[in-house]
User: Fold these one by one.
Assistant:
Number 1:
Amino acid sequence: MSKKNAFVKLGIFSALFGGAFAFSNYIYKISTVPHQHTDDDKDFDEQITEGRHFVRNHPDRQDMFIDSIDQLKLHASYIPASENSHKYAIVIHGVWDNHESNGIYARHYLEKGINCLLPDLRGFGKSEGKYIGYGLDDRLDILEWIYWIIKRDPEAKILLHGMSMGAATTLMTTGEHLPENVKAAIADSAYATLREQFAATYKSFKGSFIPTPIALALSRIIIYLRAGYDINDASPIKAVAKSETPTLFIHGDDDSFIDPHMCSRLYEAASCPKQYCMILGAGHIEGVVKDPDNYWGKIASFLAKTDF
């Protein structure tokens, strides 16, 4: 092999390696590095913004902190019901947001006499963390919050209610061995597997010139090296197959971010007592504002059939 050919091949290899490295870091930055929600970020509906203000300004709101198993300081807002109650709702937010986005749900539960715990998932709000866990690491954090409640109130009856990534977190939590205090779960707009969701989101990017299988492989490697987990392990559909927690699966049929068919797949795979609700005309996590009567009515009828 001539020196010229060797230099050409070395140059091509270096360019390919450098390009792959740069692309991997770009994918990691946009997919796995948390971005904090600010008041300049517009909500998809005014009722969500009103809910933020409801939580932020609630006179009984308390800041609570615990340590995760990997020694991160995790934050949640706790709002007790006005009446003495052993019922608790852990309401779990989605990606690129924080616990305040769930104020609309907290207001409803508090009106029903249910205490509310609103965690900031790792990397968001006031919780420490340098990467997004997509429910995989977060499920263990929610377990810590569950035991935090039980330690305060051994008679607690706990409901998990998550939206989007919070819904995936909810489902992956139900795949764990849970204490009997956890009575029910609600998953609003969950993905079936993180790998599938990554692929769908990547395909929607303008200029996604690298073939999807290669992009996924590079994403999997860089996330494993930098965040320490395998995106293939973030699989709500595997978790629900092990779940014993009664679960309500909710999705909007007009969701363009997470495929509504994932909801029916999750429902079919679930081994637990289950119900299914498709909100017509609702986009991603819009059911609560597009059709609140149907949304909360379905939840009420579902919970009436559980021990919550």
Number 2:
Amino acid sequence: MNIAYLPSDYLPIFIQLGLALGFIVTTMIVTHNIGPKRSSQKKDAAFECGIPSEGDARTPISIKYFLIAILFVLFDVEVIFMYPWAVNFKNLGMAGFVEMILFMGLLLAGFYYILKKGVLKWE
């Protein structure tokens, strides 16, 4: 069954997209123009939960922190792919099982590589 879509079929989507973008742009312009423009030294000072700011915000931070954060997000997202598989485990049959074994093998190979590189060793 070959269904051909005409450009006019997409017209409602483009209208909704245009209206949404128009609303966003209009709201940003109007709020910028009618908002208060008062500034003072106290108002422009950094505020962190009522605790006075200390030091420079540009102090160097160890790259290990960012590596662990990125690795957490990476492996967390990969684990999310296992939930649909677990729900449909019986329906997928042996092919689904083999695919998940391959996926888990690649995931564990990446984890092994990370362990061997010493990324998770915090000093």
Number 3:
Amino acid sequence: MMKEELLESVAYLKNKGFDNPEIGIVLGTGLGKLVDSIEDPIDAHYNHIPFFPLATVEFHTGKLVYGTISGKKVVVMQGRFHLYEGYDFLDITYPIRVMHMLGITKLFISNAAGAVNLDFKKGDMMLIEDHINLQGGSPLAFKGVSEFGERFADMSEPYDVDMRKKLIDIAKENDISLKQGVYASVVGPQLETRAEYRMIKLIGADAVGMSTVPEVIVANHLSLPIVAVSVLTDECDPDNLKPVDINEIISIAEKTEPKMVKLFKELIKQL
């Protein structure tokens, strides 16, 4: 059934002028400004795209934007979906499948996350090298998954090595600090307890968030190379834990965003 729905979503977008994008981009919390760099943008609001989920988080806009950045055709998700909104794994990753069917050959992902590695600070960016799925499920655990790709998707190197190297070089050239580390994905929407932060650090994560991993699993299933960057918006020190201010998280993401936009635009240029 999902294949027919995907075909209908894709037909709607092609009809609107979404013509063979090369790069798909998912923008995280407080990271929507990349769309300002898009030349000749065409918008498609999620509530108009057949079978598309709707963004319910107040700081997620909820539209796909198609156009050109650095000479390449892109399709950008301004606003993503999360388990904590009541969606399931298929809903969350539906847009990745749509972008793939539109023709993307690379996927960029951004998110806002908490720094569990105490060497990392608020406002730092972290290139994701690997991840830990703590969301209790998989977007590939459904009947008929093998119609879309190998059921037992390999995850030995989920984030593309070549694009990661390029981003590290771009960061150095532009004097932008870019940490590297492991991202753990939890369900949310509640933030972690002191004990949970200790556990997350103990199992090898450097940052924790509530998104990205399902999207990455599906992209790997579709053999789509991925690069992902976390903007670290709070420091998760269990011994000095303060109540989190969501407005502060958004504000830090927005302040760091120009650096992330610079990294993504330069990487697009080099691909």
